[in-house]
Design brief:
Blueprint (H helix, E strand, L loop, with lengths): L16 H5 L4 E6 L5 E6 L3 E6 L8 E4 L18 E3 L6 E5 L5 E5 L17 E4 H4 L10 E6 L5 E6 L6 E6 L7 E4 L9 E5 L5 E10 L1 E10 L8 E2 L9 E7 L12 E4 L4 E4 L2 E7 L12
Antiparallel strand pairs: 1-2, 2-3, 3-4, 5-6, 6-7, 7-8, 9-10, 10-11, 11-12, 13-14, 14-15, 15-16, 17-20, 18-19, 19-20
């Protein structure tokens, strides 16, 4: 894209008007690693895909999990994220209606030439139940995000009694394991995402200031939660949730320290990438995926 071109692009809907009229709810979009397709949660039942270049005409169901998908919170859509392995495009992770992280292998990624490939050899594995270190106490896992090297997944879980962050190491191995990011932490943390270089994590934390508010934080791996930097715009601001951290082109004018990009908190410039967060402004009757 020409940086001198300041023309504002019109968002293109990834769901058709006909589908919208049937009152589907679409949540938590994420890109395949090559950026050519979007995968998202439809009605907490289907994993849908759409090829970016083709738009609504390529919208189709990639997979219908047997336990459906974790219900999306009416407040922030937590639990509904679907993510592709950045190393293997034939593998994805999702959270089922059972509150467990599942691994799906054998996926044929959609392309412009074949937007709806027949997914006939998918294998669905319950990673949460199969991982060493899993507790037998009922818990809910949510919001998985893959490290850039594919070696582990960060997620939030109620394994400790409250929502805290955990790692699932070796997600594609025969013996994955789970461990807390901050052992013994008593502070809530939800919706984690890795930085593009894999050295930091952004997450959100519900707090109470002037009413209930959700703050966004960033912390370097290996540092205690007390070292997390608050990226929100102060008490009383709109709730910030669903962070997504994407790489950006090198630009000497970008600050290395976090700074507001789209007030009030729709996005933040962070050294090494762009961290986008959802800012709640109003409630719409239905959700659509736009680009």
């Amino acid at each position: 894209m020409d940086p001198s071109d300041t023309t504002e692009a019109t968002p293109a809907s990834l769901v058709s008007a006909t589908e919208f009229s049937t009152a589907h709810d679409d949540y938590a979009p994420s890109f395949t690693d090559d950026g050519r397709a979007v995968v998202f949660n439809r009605d907490n039942v289907w994993i849908e895909t759409a090829v970016v270049a083709s738009g609504a005409t390529s919208d189709c169901t990639l997979y219908a999990p047997p336990t459906h998908l974790a219900p999306a919170s009416g407040d922030n859509g937590s639990g509904s994220r679907i993510v592709f392995d950045p190393v293997s495009p034939s593998t994805l992770a999702y959270v089922g209606g059972d509150g467990h992280i599942h691994l799906v292998t054998g996926v044929i990624p959609p392309t412009a030439a074949l937007p709806c490939p027949v997914q006939s050899h998918l294998v669905d594995t319950d990673l949460s139940a199969g991982a060493t270190g899993s507790s037998t106490t009922p818990y809910v896992d949510a919001n998985p995000d893959w490290s850039p090297d594919g070696s582990r997944i960060v997620f939030d879980s109620t394994r400790g009694g409250i929502h805290t962050l955990w790692f699932l190491s070796g997600p594609t191995s025969l013996s994955p394991s789970v461990s807390p990011v901050w052992p013994g932490s008593t502070a809530t943390a939800t919706q984690p995402v890795f930085s593009p270089d894999g050295n930091q994590i952004a997450y959100t934390q519900p707090v109470v200031h002037n009413g209930t508010q959700v703050l966004a934080y960033v912390v370097a791996l290996g540092q205690p939660q007390s070292h997390a930097v608050d990226l929100s715009l102060g008490a009383g601001a709109a709730a910030n949730s669903q962070p997504a951290w994407q790489p950006s082109f090198p630009n000497p004018n970008l600050p290395e320290a976090p700074a507001p990009l789209l007030l009030p908190g729709a996005g933040l410039l962070v050294g090494g990438g762009v961290l986008a967060v959802r800012t709640r402004r109003n409630r719409l009757p239905r959700h659509r995926i736009t680009l």
